[in-house]
């Protein structure tokens, strides 16, 4: 029964490390994706509509 308890503990630690890694990768991806865009250029307007 002692080995089963150790196995659960190790599994929890691995899952915790995996979750932290995924959160950090997700935050890095969001940081790169958040670039400002000019709406008029995106919509291909050369000047403001009347």
From TrEMBL:
Keywords: Collagen. It comes from the Eukaryota. GO terms for cellular component: collagen trimer. This is Alpha-1(V) collagen. It comes from Gallus gallus.
């Amino acid at each position: 029964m002692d080995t089963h308890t150790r196995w659960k503990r190790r599994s929890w630690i691995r899952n915790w490390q995996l979750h932290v890694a995924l959160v950090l990768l997700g935050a890095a991806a969001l940081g790169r994706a958040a670039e400002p865009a000019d709406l008029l250029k995106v919509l291909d307007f050369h000047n403001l509509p009347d």
